[in-house]
Amino acid sequence: MQLRDEREQRGLINQFSDEKLFDLYNKGWEKFYIWFDPSADSLQIGNMFAVMAAIHLMKYGNKCYFLVWGATGMIWDPSGRSDERNFLTEEKLRHNEQCIYNQLKTFLENIKKNYDIDFDYEMVDNYDFFKWMEYLAFLREVGKYITVNYMIAKESIKKRIEDPEQSITYAEMSYMLIQWFDFFTLFSKHGVKLQLGWSDQRWNVTTGMELIRKKIDQDAYCMTIPIITDASWAKYGKSAGNAVRVDKAKNSPYFVYQFFMNAEDSLIGKLLKVFSLKSLEEINTIVEKHTQNPWLRYGQKELASRVVEVLFGKEAVEQAEKISKVLFWWEDIMETIKWFTKDDISALYMETWWIDIKWTDMKVLDMFTEVGLTSSNGDAKKMIQSGSLYINEIKVEDVQSVVSSKDFINGVLLLRKGKKQYKIVRTLKA
Asked: Residue 305 belongs to what domain range?
């Protein structure tokens, strides 16, 4: 399939500067870049839309420069804000940069391994463009070519200037010059002819292209990608302001898996086209099969599996599916736990929380109260009498029963109250 056709069908084009770029990058052996800001120490699901947009362009034999904003992050983008951001310390900024570098490299190498495809990429930090540049040299290199009139015409800047209760600092204005110089530097030093950017960054993207034309009279290109949204038009993965991080320490593979298991039916095809490397024909087949019996959530399972596979690898998918089988009654729960690996059990602990007890006999009433599923032994007794408490998925019927070490399966004792309140118990030898 031709590059433009595939990107349009996958929903990876918002706007572009020139039709020529599609012929150029369809042939391969060209270079492009996309950037990431180090405002946090982890990328989020929205960032992965940009990563996948780049991968779908690299498939055609093009090289991507993944640019982390080590310099820009010291100033930040004033767009969409009514006040100035608080500066991060340089130590924190460098830490965030390294975390993002590591995540990007892990994702890219993971995709190469799992999908048996090869592509070329390079990690770049724009701090390296500026750390030895003198201030006067920067003004001559960039400031000379961009007028203040042009800068304040930008809508987000204009609002800040015209509102008597707001203001904008010179540092924030300078942010734009730094971003524009990125493109010029990558173009002149590495032959990068195309910038990928978000649709809400179109003004900055096209100005970088304009700087190249003014300084060296060369053609460069830009293409923006849509901001992916959920059914309510909120940025995907940022519901209620809580971004879904793609760092295992912050949001586990199981958490990410369940996030996509809850995707609306209408988004399945759209998200698969972006977040997976399946062909468009395969995706259409998945959507068609899902539509026939949507209550089976076949499409969500395919989507969740493909996203977790891209982010964390095939083993993470298997683990997320195992935990889902336990916590959502997909199969015989205890039979599933019986075959858990040590890592699977550790992951299950993290998703349900756990409590350690000594390897001694304990009354059931004490056990449920100890783990916090009941407020007291009297409460536990009432719950047993109403048929609401379970051990290893077997209903507790005797209030005098005792839990012993022989009840543990693969080192796990699974307690449940009602339909969905679980706790894992593990033993410590006395």
From this structure: 252-329
Question: Given its phi and psi angles, is residue 242 left (phi above 0), alpha (psi -120 to 50 degrees) or beta?
Answer: beta
How far apart are alpha carbons 236 and 245 in whole angstroms? 12
Name the residue with higher pLDDT: 40 or 331. Answer: 40
CA distance 209 to 83: 28
CATH number of the domain residue 70 falls in: 3.40.50.620
Q: What is the pLDDT of residues 111-121, one digit of tens each?
A: 998 888 899 99
Domain count, the chain: 3
Same domain as 9, residue 128? yes
Query: Over the range 299-326, which residues count as b (16 or more CB within 10 Å of their CB) and which as e?
Result: bbbbbbbbbbbbbbbeebbbbbbbbbbb
pLDDT 10s digits, 135-146: 999 999 888 988
Whether 335 is in a domain gets the answer: no
In terms of Cβ atoms closer than 10 Å to its own Cβ (0-12, 13-18, 19+), residue 410 is middle
Same domain, 325 and 354: no
